[in-house]
Amino acid sequence: MTRSCVFSKEAELQPEAPLVLLAGATASGKSLLAMELCARLGAEIVNADSMQVYRRMDIGTAKPSPGDREVVAHHLIDVADPDESFDAARYMELARPAVDSVRKRGKTALVVGGTGLYMKVLTRGICRVPPSDPGIKEELLADERRLGLANLFTELSLADTKAASRIHPHDRQRILRALEVYRITGVPLTAYQQEHGFADIELSAIKIFIYRERAELYERIDRRVDEMISQGLEEEVRGLISMGYSPELKSMQSLGYKQMARYIEGELSMDEAVYQIKRDTRHYAKRQMTWFRTDPEFGWYRADDIPGIISRIKECNLTGLG
Fold first, then answer.
1. Which one of 28, 217, 220, 253 has the minimum C-beta count within 10 Å?
2. Angle, helices 214-231/270-293, rounded to nearest 10 degrees
3. Is residue 14 scored above 90 in pLDDT?
4. Displacement of CA 58 from its chain's centroid (Å)
5. d(Cα 25, Cα 275) in Å, to the nearest integer?
6. What pLDDT, on a 0 to 100 scale, did the predictor assign at position 196?
7. How far apart are CA 123 and CA 102, in angstroms?
């Protein structure tokens, strides 16, 4: 399944320096494909994975190897500590100059990742909502401990029906953020999003999504989790906790780290932790595919269709056709 290129007049004037978004579900093979595309297209990689921005979180984020980073320049990796606030606004602030720098040097900027929101704000700008409020955030965390996430999701359903319809009941981060905005302002998050609309193309791009059949993808997810365990995910999480990074941090609530921290704290057995990481990663992959299906500008290609992907990038870059 393929879809159209999207270009602005500016992009037509600079065909030698395109911007390419390479998206895909977790474990779909984006990193390996990105290295191949860089070799063939003379590209540099700009990270669009919300976890690879964090320092000292390497194994659980499947971060590119030091060897790959020596061969190809990677931008926006290891730019924040695990206890730093990092959101879509911060991503846009760092990513746009990185993309501009790569393109001004005549190289293709290849934005690689599975965080759809980061790619969206990079090309279409950001919905300006009130900044996080530490007091409200602590209040929400206390309510979560006391009442449970399910009750907070019910509260969100009453306060912002549209947001609740788009957010999975187990998506803790998005539930807490939507409720935080509502408690701070009394205005639903979706009202801010609707006002912004993401209607304008601020930065033109060639958009590629790679996919695998579900059974194959799930097998790859299971294999990746097993590899993370054998590579020392437990030791990585123990090290982060020993450095003072709380398991309650946003970064430490991510896939792999959350479950391993619960194992370390005695709440889960290792078998239970591994099972939950695999299960929750499969659920996350499904949500990623759902997100990118809503954007008709992405062309969908099998992960092994390198000739088709390269042909599409070159076609779009030469013609500038929308």
1. 253
2. 140
3. no
4. 15
5. 19
6. 47
7. 16
pLDDT digits (tens, 9 = 90+) for 156-201: 999 999 889 888 898 888 899 899 989 998 888 888 766 644 445 5
CA angle centred on 15, ends 14 and 16, rounded to 5°: 90
Task: Check if the beta carbon of residue 107 is closer than 8 Å to that of residue 42.
Answer: yes
Higher-confidence residue: 96 or 321?
A: 96
pLDDT in tens, 272-281: 999 999 999 9
CATH 1.10.20.140 domain span(s) along the chain: 134-196
Closest C-alpha among 256, 270, 202, 185 to residue 224: 256
As a whole number of Å, the end-to-end CA separation of the chain is 17
* CATH superfamily assigned to domain 9-127+198-319: P-loop containing nucleotide triphosphate hydrolases (3.40.50.300)
Q: Which residue has the tokens 């999504």?
A: 209
Give all strands (DSSP E) within 63-131, no chain letters: 74-75, 108-113
Cβ pair 26, 285 in contact under 8 A: yes
Tokens read off for 317: 């870059």
pLDDT at 267 over 50: yes
Taking domain 134-196, whether its CATH number is 1.10.20.140 is answered by yes
- Give mean pLDDT, residues 258-265: 98
CATH 3.40.50.300-classified regions of the chain? 9-127+198-319
